[in-house]
Design goal:
Layout lengths: L1 H20 L3 E6 L7 H16 L3 E6 L2 H10 L6 E2 L2 E2 L3 H24 L5 E5 L6 E10 L8 E14 L2 H8 L3 E5 L1 E3 L5 E3 L2 H12 L3 E6 L14 E3 H9 L7 H13 L4 E6 L5 H7 L5 E5 L1
Parallel strand pairs: 1-2, 1-11, 2-8, 5-8, 11-13, 12-14
Antiparallel strand pairs: 3-4, 6-7, 9-10, 13-14
Length: 293
């Protein structure tokens, strides 16, 4: 009987969060281990379905870089990266679209739907959802010399989110699952960082939360401890001082962009934990770093 009472207490603990978030939109960037390990994939799909059933409107944006690289090698093409960005020629772009928009996107849709929800797979090309421009990297040059521009090929950045199709799906109770491929000014496909896509989508939808899943516990301090809550000002300072580095940089930048566009709260969550979404959203302590205005 005591164990049953404890289960009831767990549900009661979640009650104020459920009440506050009813009818709100959460944009979730799905990637890392949570997208590769079978038990974590199943748990993620359950979490998204549960959010939908209690009145939250989840929108999923997914990555899939490791799977793209794996498919490239199987097809005899070696992946190439510059400063963490995939160099994307036309052949690579074809593989990106095949893996992200086909294999991965439809797997996520099927998993969510297997738990009774209604997910719909989309590319940023559908209904011109993600209008993009080509991304050029600027390489620092010695003083007095012209800045060097690095051409990454068909790599883009979000110019505009046309959110009408997402709003229409949300109003009908569907869960959009979006692959981060945008459409350029001449109709060409552009490969875009999924963290930045999720940030732009959250801003366009006026989301309550942006949640980024990653493979680390969260943003760490100088002693390697997770920082439970960061203000935007402190996060910007840590970026300037190089205290945030590597793959965490685009995630923190994505959070800051979203906050600057009106998203109320952002989260960087350890996706290696089973049911990390529910633990972050519906418990007092959470399981990652929240970045707030």
């Amino acid at each position: 009987m005591q164990s049953l009472i404890e289960r009831a207490r767990t549900l009661i603990e979640a009650l104020p969060y459920i009440r506050n978030f009813y009818g709100k939109t959460f944009v979730i960037k799905y990637g890392g281990a949570a997208q590769r390990e079978e038990a974590l994939k199943e748990g993620f799909a359950q979490d998204v379905a549960l959010l939908n059933f209690i009145g939250v409107h989840p929108v999923v944006v997914h990555g899939g870089g490791p799977k793209v690289s794996e498919m490239m090698r199987r097809l005899g093409k070696e992946p190439s990266f510059v400063h963490g960005h995939r160099v994307t020629d036309q052949e690579t772009m074809d593989i990106v679209e095949m893996v992200l928009g086909g294999l991965i996107n439809k797997e996520i849709v099927a998993l969510i739907n297997s738990h009774g929800a209604r997910a719909v797979g989309l590319s940023g090309k559908d209904a011109l959802l993600l209008k993009a421009r080509k991304k050029l990297l600027k390489k620092a040059s010695p003083e007095g010399q012209a800045e060097e521009i690095i051409d990454l090929g068909l790599v883009g950045e979000v110019k505009e989110v046309s959110a009408e199709v997402l709003q229409a799906l949300k109003q009908q109770g569907f869960i959009p699952v979006l692959s981060p491929v945008g459409v350029g000014p001449r109709g060409e496909s552009l490969n875009i960082n999924a963290d930045y896509v999720a940030s732009a989508v959250a801003a366009a939808l006026g989301a309550e939360k942006l949640i980024l899943l990653t493979d680390v516990p969260g943003v760490l301090d100088a002693r390697g401890r997770v920082i439970a809550t960061l203000t935007a000002r402190r996060a910007r300072g840590m970026l300037r001082r190089g205290q945030i580095s590597g793959g965490m940089v685009p995630k923190v930048e994505a959070c800051l962009r979203a906050l600057g566009s009106g998203v109320r709260k952002t989260h960087i969550v350890d996706g290696r934990l089973q049911h990390c979404l529910l633990l972050e959203i519906f418990t007092e302590r959470g399981v990652g770093t929240e970045i707030v205005p």
